[in-house]
Amino acid sequence: MSFVEYGDTIKDGDTAIVFLGHESMFPVKVQHGTVTQTKYGVIRHSTDLIGKKYGSKVTCSKGGWVFILHPTPELWTMNLPHRTQILYSTDISIITMMLELKPGSIVCESGTGSGSLSHALIRTVAPTGHLYTVEFHQQRAEKAREEFREHGVEHLVTVTNQDVCKNGFGVSNIADAVFLDIPSPWEAIGHAKSALKAEGGRICSFSPCIEQVQRTCLAMEEYGFTEINTLEILLRVYNVRTISLQIPDLGKAAEDNSSTGFDSSNPSLPGSPCANLQQGTVQFKSGVPLREVVGHTGYLTFATKS
Amino acid sequence: AMEGGLSARIREGDCAVLKRDEVFKAVSVLRRRKIIFEKQWFYLDNAIGHIYGTTFEVTSGGNLQPKQEVEETTTETKEAGTDNRNIVDDGKSQKLTHDDIKALKDKGIKGQEIVQQLIENSTTFRDKTEFAQDKYIKKKKKKYEAVITIVKPSTRILSTMYYAREPGKINHLRYDTLAQMLTLGNIHAGNKMIVMETCAGLVLGAVMERMGGYGSIIQMYPGGGPVRAATSCFGFPKPFFDNLHEFPLSKVQSLLSGTFTTETLPADPEENALVEEESNGLTEEKQTSLQETEEEPTTEAAMEINPTEEQDTIDINAEDVEFKENKEKENKENVREKQIKQWERRKKLLEAAALLREKNADGLIIASKFHPTPLLLSLLEFVAPSRPFVVYCQYKEPLLECYTKLRERGGVINLKLSETWLRNYQVLPDRSHPKLTMSGGGGYLLSGITVILDKGKSDSSNSEALKVEEPSSKRCRLQDLPC
Known about the structure:
The complex is a heterodimer of chains A (306) and B (483). With 306 residues, chain A is α/β, with parallel strands linked by helices. Chain A contains 9 helices and 14 strands. Chain A has 2 domains: 63 residues, Vcp-like ATPase, Chain A, domain 2; 170 residues, Rossmann fold. In chain A, β3 and β4 form a beta hairpin. Chain B is of the alpha/beta class and 483 residues long. Among the domains of chain B are: 123 residues, Roll (Vcp-like ATPase, Chain A, domain 2); 197 residues, Rossmann fold (3-Layer(aba) Sandwich). In chain B, 37% of the residues lie in helices and 17% in strands. Chain B starts with a helix and ends with a helix. Chains A and B meet through β1, β6, α3, α4 and α8 of A and α5, α6, α7, α15 and β13 of B.
């Protein structure tokens, strides 16, 4: 397995995702002789994981079972150890498309943070592209390097430990796209411009506050970027539910059976309409929005160097 | 910079996209060919050799000329009002008449100068606030400055273009929704993907772009053949098509039950159907989308077509004199050609069938006008375990049913029904706010991951894991409404 190539069977050294149930999962490093505790009991790597197919159901020691999944950048994003605030797949999707990334693209990114976006970028530009990612926090930079190695993608990424606002990306005239997720992106626009290819490329900056966006847009204009465009994307998730609504008793049943407005052949209204309408219900399927949703992650500002 | 420089230049025969402000149009770059775009006509001849992203001015006679960067003539001290309390709309603030403006245009005076004249002849301009002046200039520039930019096609540009110009052709799939599909489906180089779409080939093109020619794609198609009008706008290099396969939906059942043969393939009528469908999807101006049931405002000229495909269409359909004269002679050749074509089609079909039979695809993408449930239930059979699938539907309700049916079938986890909202912003000093309008709907997605279907056990014997996934406690609460 690697994050850029599917494999069929679980091997020693793989990073796999243990799926326990609805939105409940965690990553595990597969190692001979190791055991992993879950709420359904123990998983023994040597016997329960290695050699099994990805997507298999694994029975734990207490009789409960879990699924073992092949890692993807999206599953990693949901399960990675947070060292910083991270970008989620909804924002990552639009960033990837709007930066026009594809196999072979050269991308510059800063900061690396927890590597959530980095994994997605690497997946998209592989096998011929490259990611140059800059992180000014030494420990985070090292941790990211370690993860890229474990995930079999180290050949596709260069992690540099420096301040992008002062020292830039460490490369020039090479990138097709630049992504910035730093507190003062306007200070890095000049460096972004010189990192991009002479014939042009795309840039994106992610900022939570509108004041940051304003300063970034001004800097982009100053450096001659065109097509400057700011947007925000929000995810709405729906729970699929069967809902029953009671039919109110308006005392009409006794007078006129046909005036209920509901088809009496409706299976949810069986038998004689009079009797049933009083306690009757109508059932339907609905996509119910979650009680609380993410209302804002950040503004995404895109522009073109041409 | 040098190596990339070559491909970054506009070449004859390229598929390119014209851009004016936020409006796009896909065209083929051909010499001596008149293009009509945003009420202007011109030839692309002079654009050849320039770098993609160059902005051109349209000169009289329809020639394109790279736009010179002009320093804004705003050195003079600006005069502006503070509010609009004394500005009266009497319709007489502009001293130039329609005829005056037309005369200026006919003289071939540059748009920039016309805008300057309009400002000078506006009696209220000086009293307007600085912001209002800015807005006035922008509006006039948009109208009178004939500039177009030529850009390289990409999923970003083509999906934005289609959503704005031909939403009915792509089932109202908004570009941010398409972006989600590509990510949720973990589309990348080396995948073996199954794609079932009726989005003019836009989704296929997006998948092809992300796979960069590595791996394989099996496109499932309804009717006589796959529609790839939008795919051809991408201008993919030839090798990208080497591992693009197609398989008719109508043969899926026989493939699954093991009765599939190529003998039963009616080649001829299907080939005709293919041509008809494609030309319908491609023809400029008379685009009345047949499949549309809802009323769409008829859009003007939209996508240009791939010249080679258009040529094919004409070759088969044209009934000019010359054609009739040579008919007999060509008939024999036609028959032989047809046989070769048929044989090639059969070979490709067998290849596609063999790929599907392996039942090890790395993902499934569905975005069609059909009900998603039967498509998903059948096509998932061809997907390996632990692989993502994504289904798009313009409406939420069919996906609710699909969700339920998938749960009954089993073999899938992490099911998620979602939608994205997209909000654009105006960012200007002291004038930042969300844009006035946003898209009302860009469709819904149902996504999930396949797992090994365990055939021995029934649902009732499932342990806690599934119960955790099913939000049953909440469901009870909703059903047990207080009396």
